[in-house]
């Protein structure tokens, strides 16, 4: 399984990050341990949403959608 996820910084509540992974638990640990250069400044992070997909391409497509204007509006409204 592959996962598209949204995490939110607990120290900087206006900061969120959208990504995809094949190991959700390990990826969240990596974000919180400062192993990701894009999220290190805003640790700690909490998981706000994730969706599971059977293949990588679907997870990537949904990640790209969430990063568009309409996808951002959708995620703000629902998550």
Structural class: alpha+beta
CATH architectural grouping: 3-Layer(aba) Sandwich
Q: How many DSSP H or I helices?
A: 3
Reported for the largest beta sheet, the result is: 3 strands, antiparallel
Q: What's the domain count?
A: 1
Q: Give the CATH level 1 class.
A: Alpha Beta
Order of SSEs = EEHEHH
Question: Helix content range of the residues, please?
Answer: 25-40%
What is the CATH T-level topology?
GIY-YIG endonuclease
Strand order of the largest sheet: 2-1-3
3D architecture notes:
- The protein is of the alpha+beta class and 79 residues long.
- The chain has one domain: GIY-YIG endonuclease (3-Layer(aba) Sandwich).
- The chain has helices at residues 24-32, 56-66, 69-78, and strands at residues 2-9, 16-21, 45-53.
- A 3-stranded antiparallel sheet has the order 2-1-3.
- Strand 1 and strand 2 form a beta hairpin.
- The chain starts with a strand and ends with a helix.
Q: What layout of secondary structure does this protein have?
A:
Elements: E1 2-9, E2 16-21, H1 24-32, E3 45-53, H2 56-66, H3 69-78
Antiparallel strand pairs: 1-2, 1-3
Structure summary:
This protein is α+β, with helices and mostly antiparallel strands.
Provide tags for this entry.
3 strands; 79 residues; 3-stranded antiparallel β-sheet; 38% helix; single chain; GIY-YIG endonuclease
